[in-house]
Specification:
Helix content is about 30%, strand content about 30%. With about 325 residues, it is of the alpha+beta class. It folds into two domains: about 140 residues, Gcn5-related N-acetyltransferase (GNAT) (Aminopeptidase, 3-Layer(aba) Sandwich); about 120 residues, Aminopeptidase (3-Layer(aba) Sandwich). Strand 12 and strand 13 form a beta hairpin.
């Protein structure tokens, strides 16, 4: 079997999304409706790899900037998405073809963020081996914290106390259908503690929730009818990722976020295997925020890594 590489164009949209739904490491973030909500911020340069019958066997979400190919700057991660029938030796060939194709487009470097294996529906780490074969450099490694929901995770004593306190104070947890309703809490916390804004604004997150109602869920902890803590999850069939967690001053006093996280875990335990809290690193992975990771670990979470590699294409003849 022979393969070829070409750049994604708008006419490939249906084919892209159809392939995505059946590949072995699918994630809804790679659906074109999700990728294109911020199309104005990035120069899309996603790739299709097809066989000799013009059937897609792999896709690679990406963008380019200053002669660098990124997989994809607008996404948390985003490596090759691969057909289940592709063997390791064939993938190595595909990876080499992609390098040559990008080199021909005057791309000098690949910045590559593999999809963490907790998001794989079937083993899919051929890309890590191909990176090794290409003398890729590990440029960044972040620690994320995950709970195996059905594997007897344990809360710390302090966390159990916090959950009980929130209940005694009358905090109630519920699912919210319109994300922008909790954006005030999220904006407040990001501004106060990180001098930052949410990655998504109110219009964007409401749009994405409407497009992906089964994949994006929003929960609020309320006290006397007011939102005092919020959780936004990005979900696949088996993994629930807490994209946003925030608690107001009153919420922190009442330990509302402890109760809300417990509520989310219980809600998703009927269908998911893993809850992933996301990374606790700063400074390109070199600084570990111990306070942040301790909070996640007090729910029973333990570490996985999110990696970032670079491949130098200038050495290709």
């Amino acid at each position: 079997m022979t393969f070829s590489v070409r750049k994604y164009v708008a006419a490939d949209r249906l084919q892209w999304n159809t392939f995505l739904s059946g590949c072995k490491n699918n994630h809804f973030m790679f659906h074109r409706d999700f990728m294109e909500y911020h199309a104005d911020r990035f120069e899309d340069f996603s790739l299709l790899i097809v066989d000799d019958k013009n059937k897609i066997v792999s896709i690679l979400p990406g963008n380019i900037e200053q002669h660098i190919f990124y997989s994809h700057q607008g996404l948390t991660f985003g490596g090759f998405l691969v057909d289940k029938n592709i063997h390791a030796s064939e993938f190595i060939e595909i990876f080499e073809l992609v390098k040559v194709f990008l080199k021909q487009q005057n791309i000098e470097k690949i910045i590559y963020k593999p999809i963490p294996n907790i998001y794989h529906q079937y083993p899919a780490q051929e890309d890590l081996y191909a990176l090794f074969r290409s003398n890729a450099q590990l440029n960044r490694r972040d620690i994320s914290s995950s709970i195996l929901i059905h594997n007897a995770y344990k809360y710390s004593r302090a966390k159990r106390w916090g959950i009980n306190k929130a209940r005694r104070e009358g905090v109630l947890c519920l699912e919210i259908q319109k994300p922008s309703e909790v954006w005030g809490v999220i904006r407040e916390v990001l501004s106060e503690f990180h001098d930052a804004n949410p990655v998504h604004n109110e219009q964007e997150i409401d749009y994405l929730k409407e497009k992906f109602p089964k994949n994006i869920k929003v929960y609020a902890a309320q006290h006397q009818g007011n939102n005092i803590a919020a959780c936004v999850t990005f979900e696949t069939e088996e993994v629930v990722h807490t994209q946003y967690l925030a608690s107001s001053k009153l919420g922190r006093d009442l330990h509302a976020l402890d109760l809300l996280i417990d509520h989310v875990i219980l809600q998703c335990s009927t269908y998911a295997k893993i809850l992933d809290f996301g990374i606790s690193c700063e400074n390109n992975g070199h600084y570990l925020n111990n306070g942040l990771i301790n909070q996640k670990e007090s729910f029973g979470a333990r570490s996985i890594v999110y990696d970032l590699y670079s491949v130098d294409l200038t050495v290709i003849e």
